[in-house]
Amino acid sequence: MSSNLNSLFLRCLCWVLFLCWTGGALATSYEAQLPAELNSSPRLCDFVPCGEVMPGAVEFSERKGRPPYVEAYSRVAGKRQLMGYVFLSTDIVDIPAYSGKPVVTLIGMDAEGRFTGSKILKHSEPILLLGIPESELVKFTRQYVGRFVGDKLEIGKSGQDDEAIGLDAITGATVTVIAQNQVMLRCGAEVAKQVGIMKPVLLPAAKFTAAEAPRSWQELMDEGSIQFLGIKPEDVGKEGRGQAYLDMWFGYLNQPAVGKSLLGEEGYASLMSRLKPDEHAIFIIARGSDSFKGSGFVRGGIYDRVQVRQGMETHTFRDLDYLNLYSVAASGVPDYRESAIFIIRSGNFSAAYPWQLVLLANKVDPESGARQFTSFHREYWLPAKYLEGGRPLVERTDPTWLKVWKGRLPEIIGFIALLAFAALVYGQRDRLVRRSTRKDKRWVSLPKYFIWTASIVFVGFHAMAQPSVTQVLTWFHAMLYQWKWELFLSDPLIFVFWWFIILSIFFWGRGLFCGWLCPFGSLTEMLYKLAGRLGLKRFQFKLPQVWHDRLKWLKYGIFYGLLGISFFSMGLAEMLAEVEPFKTTFLVGLFNRAWPYTLFAGSLLGISLFIERPFCKYLCPLGAALALPSTFRWFGLKRKQECGPCAACAVGCGSLAIDAAGRIDQRECLLCLDCMVMYYDDHACPPLVQERKQRGKAGQSLTPIGSDGYYIPIKPLPAGAPAHKSAVAARSKADPTMLTDPALPPYADHEGDLIGLIAAETWDHLWPWSHHGFQRQRAVQGLGLALAVTVTVMWILAAMGQLSEGVVLGWWFGWSLFEVVVRLGSKPYVKEGPWLGRRYRKADTMDMVCYVGFKNLLIGAALFILLKPLGLF
Ligand code: SF4
Ligand code: SF4
C-alpha cells in the first residue's frame, strides 16, 4: 500500500514536471542556437531576417564600419535608395541582462535615426522562459519604433525630467528591460554617430598645469596617472594556468609632467613633435597569455582589440595611429611583453574628462562552450593637480543595479521594516508565548497574521520577491564559474531577503523565514486557517506520522536532483524548478499561464485547505535547501525533561516536527511557537497542570513559571541543586532538547584548556577517521583515506593551474559523499546548538549529510577565497 502510494505520487510529479518542461520549451528564442557565422560573416543579413526590422528593404550591404552595421536599401523605379541601417546588438555592446548574458537583438534604424524595428534573436532570461511570456519583451521593444535614437527614453514615467519619454516596463522583469533600453540606445547612438546622424558633443580641451609628476612607476599608479586593467583567464571562459590572460597598464602621455616621467625628456619631446593639435597619445604595456594588439592584425588594418571610449564617442586605432614604445623611463616599471603608443586623432577627445580603455575579447561560455563577444574596461581620469581648475564636473549615469535600487527605494525601506519587525517579534517570543495560552494565542497569532498578510500581499503579489530555489542554484554556479555582484544586486528585495534568510538560519533555523515570511508558505497556511474558520475543520487532517516521516524526504530528493541537473544544464534545472508554484502564483498570476501550471499551483492551494502546508512539508526544494543548514542553528526551542514521555505538544504541531520522544526536528520545525505556548501554560502542559493541582491541594501558592518551564520553587533551592523534576521526568532517559541521544566525542575532554580544545576540534573537523572506526570498517576507511589523498592532490594541482574549478568541485562533491560514510562509522556525532558550545549528540544519516555538506562547503569557499586573490585558482 505504502509503496503504491509513493509510486503514484512520484508518477504524478514526473507528469507535472514533464508538462511544465514541454510548456516551457515552446519559448522561441530562449538559448536559441544562432549560426556560428553570425558574429564573423560580412553577410550579416544572410543569417538573420534583416527585412523584419527594416520593412520595405530589399537589399542589404555587407557589414561595414566600426562597430559594424549594414546598410539597407529599397528599390524605387529600379534605383537603389538608402533606407537605413541594421545592426546586431552584440557587435556593438556587451550589456548583460538579468541572467548575466546579453539579449542578442537585431535592430533597424532609418536614415534619419528613427528606430524601424527590433527582433530578439536569443536570450537567456529564465523569467521570460517560465514566468512572463516572451511576447512581453517583443511588446516592450516595439515601443522604440518611430522614436529618434537621440531621444531620452527611460523606463517608466519620468516625473522630474520633462524631456524624458517614459517606456512601459514589464512587471517582474525590470532588470531585463533596463538593460534592453541601454542596448537599444547605445547601439543606435554608436551607429548614428558613425553615419553622421548624430553630431558628436564637443568637450572643452584640457589645459595642463605645471605641477611636477613623481618619477617612480608606483607613485604614478598611486596618484592615478597610470591605470591597470587586469583580465583573468576565467573572465574569458578559459582555464587558469597560473598566468594572467592580460595584465595591462596604460596612461595619457600629452600631459607634460606625466609624459616626461614615463618617456623621459627626450622621448616626450620627440613624441610631441610628431603630434598635431587635437591629437592625443596614450601608452599601453601588457603581459599575459594573450595580446592586446590582436593576432589577426595586418598592416593597413585596424587594431581590433583596443579602443578608447569617452562618453558616447569610441576611438579605434589603425596602423598609422601606432608608434613603438621602446622603453619606459619611470623607475620600477613591471615586466611586460608588449608595448605600444596609440594616437587618438580627434578634436572630440578631451583629456580633462574621464575616458575608458576598452579591451574587446571573445568569451567562451563555460557551460555551453559557445563564444560570445565581451569587453573589459577601465576608467582613466588625469589627476586634478595636472588640470587647470581641477577636474570638471561630470554627471555620471548609474549602473543598472543602482538605478533599480534607487527606483525601488520606498519598497526596499518598507521591506526592511517588515523584516526587522518579524525579527523583533520573534526575538520577543518568550514574552509573547507567556502571555498566550493554549486557548488564546492572540499574542503570537496576531503579529504573525499581520506579517503573513504583508508577506503575501506586499512581498509576494506586489513586489514579487518570493525567493526561489533557482537563486540557490545560481549561487552555486556563480561561485563555480563567475561571481558577479551585479547579478545579485539587480533584484534589491531578493538580495535583502537572502541576507536576512542566511542570518536568521544561523540563529534560529529556517523557521523564521518559512514559518513567518515566505509568501507562498504564508498563503497556504493562511488558506488552511481560513478554511478551518469557515467550517471545513472537520475535513482537515494530518497524514499519519509514519507517512509523513517517509514523504518528507521527497523535498530533499527534489533539491539534490535539481542541483545535480543544474551542473549539466542550468536551463533544464530552471525549467524543472517549476515544481515551485511561486511564479504561477505571484509573478504571472494563476490564470495567466498554460493550464498545467495553473492546475499544479491550483491543486496545491486547494489541498492546502485540508492539509497544513502540504507543499512545504513534502515538495519544496527551497525549504529543503534551507533545512540542511538549519541542523546547526544556534538557538533551538525550549524543552522540559517531561517532554520526552509526554509529547502532548506534538498534537498541535502542524509541521509534525515533534517525535514520540518529544524531540523537535529543527529541519522540519517552522517556529509556529504552538509548543512554546504550551510549555508555559499551566492549564495545558501536563507536568505544570500536575504541579498546579498538587500545590492547590496542599494549599500552596502558585509562583511564577521560570524560564525552565517549571514553577519557581517555593523554597529557594541551594546553589547548584538540580532543577525541579517530576517523577515522570526522573524516569525519562532521553534528552528532549536534542533530536538524538547525547554523545561525548573523545576530544571534548579538554577541561579548562581552551586552546587545546579548539585545536582538537579543528582536527576533528578535518580528520574523519578514528582508530575505533578503522577497526570496524577497514575497507571503507582505507578507501576513504585514498580518496582524501586524491582530493588533496586535486586541490594542489588546481592551485598550480593544472585543473579547472569544475573538476575540483566534482571531486569535492564526491569526497563529501564518501566522508559521510566514513564519519558515520568512525565519528558518528554532531554538535548541537551554538558552534562554540560543547553539546554533542549522535548523528543520524541526515545529520551527517548536513554536517559534512555544510562543513565542506565552508572549507571549499574558504579555499576559493584564499587561493583566488593569490592567483592560484
Ligand atoms: S517550505 Fe518552501 S514554500 Fe514553504 S515556507 Fe519554506 S520556502 Fe516557502
Ligand atoms: S509546534 Fe513547536 S516544533 Fe512544531 S512547528 Fe511549532 S514551534 Fe516547531
TrEMBL record:
- Cite the InterPro entries for this sequence: 4Fe4S_Fe-S-bd, FMN-bd, NosR_regulator
Pfam families the record matches: Fer4_5, FMN_bind
The record's section on SMART domains has: FMN_bind
Q: Which UniProt keywords apply?
A: Cell membrane, Membrane
* Compartments reported by the entry: Cell membrane
Species assigned in the record: Denitratisoma oestradiolicum
Q: Which GO terms describe its cellular component?
A: plasma membrane
Task: Show where the FMN-binding domain sits.
Answer: 97-191
Q: What is this protein called?
A: 4Fe-4S binding protein
Molecular function per GO = FMN binding
